[in-house]
């Protein structure tokens, strides 16, 4: 047993390579690798831990059966994940995220790790491992790698293992490896020692993951390993893991046993320098064939980004599919700060409303016109009990101080508060229509009826996805021609910058989506979109009258 990591090359060598680079180190490392090393050093230097070097040595003897040698980064994460223990004997890092560019060898690594953990060197009987993925072909990848190792070394390993096309068994420990698909049914009774989730980017929700993770804990030393490149599923499990990992490495939250190994470009613009590609793939400098293939894909992507869209998402680990387009430039968003003539008492306007979750954020706004310009003033309600508040980096309390938002110290945002705000606007404006998403109407119906917005009055519009898609070209033109005005409203600029456009599979045109689910809210922008679907009800020029203070409530 040893506790001094400096004498353990599997840990120390990689730390040295990240910190020093150059001839004896990695060619380029991303920001999150530097933060990971700082994070790991802090833990190893401050906590009462044991590094089981005898076990590590035994595990590494199994490397000779594989067609490859583990790279320094693989030895690093393997040692921390499988051989470092707390004072109470439990693994210090039972959960591991490997988020690397395509071709780094994550399935090969996973095959070695699983082979080691069912072996006699683990010492835990019946330490079953389930390899999970959303598709059977992907779930079988790591399993087949281990199967092929056994086949190739049959004479030596048949004394210790039994294997079929569906199950691998260690004779001495009775530990098994099986692969599982995305069908969460019929998984009751699992008694896994470890669960692998391969290509996590494909998981849209935690439904299937929960089935397997709730089975953990019945065996000693439960572990999980997540392996993945980036992908096109937004607001899914991977986005959650990445956000959580970043907060861990920034020392904002406790790690709770998660070791986040993340490799990606620090900025999309870095892609045009080949040396930066190593930031996304820590194995690239050891694989000349992969480097040449990456060069080829880069040239294809540079010539036609839509036909080679996977290059950025998969090779560079920066989500940038051909279906995703930025909403508008940051320069165009900044120009929404312009001033226009103040509102006129009783002028015609429409209201847009976004009310996604009653215990999160809600936003509403009044839309008017000044010639070709669309003028939108918003108000935000923030639930003090929102689970997402700790994630949010935007200074929302400044918006509260400016009067652009208010904190609701309650379990949820009462619909009546929003309806009261609407009623106040009705005293200043001639509100001809209120627009909100059709699937959110049930939350607001009773409160809106109280202030006079009903189907019978024909002054409520339930916005459908097709309505938003139709208005997108007009909004796009408004941004490009600087005809959208928010006034000096930072929270509205934040909402807008958190939104992207994605090619609709159903309609073919663009639709709006969040860039990230938890920490980057879009409520104010979606309230603006709802209002814009009714912009034709507002005349461009209105008569003179008493003016109202602009962007004041």
Describe the structure.
- It is a single chain.
- With 553 residues, this protein is of the alpha/beta class.
- It folds into three domains: 5-268, P-loop containing nucleotide triphosphate hydrolases (Rossmann fold, 3-Layer(aba) Sandwich), CATH 3.40.50; 269-321, no CATH class; 330-537, 2-Layer Sandwich (Nucleotidyltransferase, domain 5), CATH 3.30.420.
- 35% of the residues lie in helices and 19% in strands.
- It is built from 18 helices and 20 strands.
- The strands form four sheets. An eight-stranded mixed sheet has the order 5-6-7-4-8-9-3-10, sandwiched between helices. Strands 12, 13, 14, 15, 16, 17 and 18 form a seven-stranded mixed sheet that branches. The protein has a three-stranded antiparallel sheet with strand order 11-19-20.
- Strand 19 and strand 20 form a beta hairpin.
- The model has no long low-confidence stretch (mean pLDDT 89).
- This is Terminase large subunit.
- InterPro entries: P-loop_NTPase, TerL_ATPase, TerL_nuclease, Terminase_largesu-like.
- One of its GO terms (molecular function) is endonuclease activity.
- Residues 72-246 form the Terminase large subunit-like ATPase domain.
- It comes from Parablautia intestinalis.
Provide the descriptors you would attach to this structure in a database record.
553 residues; Rossmann fold; Nucleotidyltransferase, domain 5; seven-stranded mixed β-sheet; endonuclease activity; P-loop_NTPase
Summarize it.
This protein is of the alpha/beta class. It has 18 helices and 20 strands.
């Amino acid at each position: 047993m040893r506790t001094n990591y400096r004498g353990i090359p599997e840990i120390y060598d990689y730390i040295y390579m990240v910190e020093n680079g150059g001839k004896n180190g990695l060619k380029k490392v991303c920001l999150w690798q530097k933060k990971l090393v700082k994070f790991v050093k802090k833990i190893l230097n401050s906590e009462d831990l044991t590094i089981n070097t005898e076990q590590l040595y035994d595990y590494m003897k199994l490397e000779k059966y594989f067609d490859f040698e583990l790279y320094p980064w693989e030895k690093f994460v393997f040692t921390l994940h499988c051989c470092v223990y707390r004072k109470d004997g439990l693994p210090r890092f039972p959960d591991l995220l490997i988020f690397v560019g395509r071709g780094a060898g994550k399935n090969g690594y996973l095959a070695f790790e699983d082979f080691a953990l069912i072996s006699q060197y683990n010492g835990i009987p019946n330490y079953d491992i389930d390899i999970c993925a959303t598709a059977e072909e992907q779930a079988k990848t790591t399993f087949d790698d281990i199967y092929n190792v056994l086949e190739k070394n049959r004479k030596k390993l048949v004394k210790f293992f039994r294997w079929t096309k569906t199950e691998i068994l260690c004779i001495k420990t009775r530990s098994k490896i099986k692969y599982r698909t995305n069908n969460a049914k019929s998984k009751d009774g699992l008694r896994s020692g470890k669960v692998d989730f391969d290509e996590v980017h494909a998981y849209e929700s935690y439904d299937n993951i929960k089935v397997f993770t709730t089975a953990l804990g019945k065996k000693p030393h439960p572990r999980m390993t997540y392996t993945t490149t980036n992908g096109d599923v937004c607001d899914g499990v991977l986005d959650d893991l990445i956000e959580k990992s970043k907060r861990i490495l920034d020392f904002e939250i406790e790690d709770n046993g998660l070791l986040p190994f993340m490799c990606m470009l620090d900025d999309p613009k870095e892609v045009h320098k080949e040396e930066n590609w190593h930031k996304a793939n820590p194995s690239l400098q050891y694989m000349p064939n992969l480097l040449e293939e990456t060069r080829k894909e880069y040239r294809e992507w540079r010539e036609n980004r839509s036909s080679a869209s996977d290059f950025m998402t998969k090779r560079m680990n920066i989500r940038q599919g051909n279906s995703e387009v930025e909403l508008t430039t940051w320069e165009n968003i900044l120009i929404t700060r312009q001033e226009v003539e103040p509102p006129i008492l009783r002028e015609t306007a429409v209201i847009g409303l976004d009310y996604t979750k009653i215990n999160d954020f809600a936003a509403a706004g009044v839309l008017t016109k000044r010639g070709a310009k669309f003028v939108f003033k918003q108000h935000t309600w923030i639930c003090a009990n929102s689970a997402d508040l700790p994630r949010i980096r935007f200074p929302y309390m400044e918006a509260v101080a400016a009067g652009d938002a208010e904190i609701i110290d309650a379990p949820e945002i009462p619909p009546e508060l929003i309806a009261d705000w609407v009623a106040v606007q009705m005293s200043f404006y001639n509100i001809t229509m209120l627009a909100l998403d059709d699937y959110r109407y049930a939350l607001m119906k009773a409160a809106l009826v109280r202030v006079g917005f009903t189907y019978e009055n024909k002054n409520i519009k339930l916005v459908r996805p097709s309505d938003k898609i139709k208005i997108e070209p007009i909004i796009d033109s408004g941004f490009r021609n600087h005809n959208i005005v928010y006034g000096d409203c930072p929270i509205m600029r934040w909402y807008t910058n958190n939104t992207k456009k994605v090619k609709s599979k159903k309609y073919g045109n663009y639709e709006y989506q969040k860039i990230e689910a938890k920490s980057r809210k879009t409520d104010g922008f979606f309230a603006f979109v709802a209002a814009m679907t009714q912009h034709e009800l507002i005349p461009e020029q209105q008569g003179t009258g008493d003016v109202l203070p602009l962007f004041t409530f």
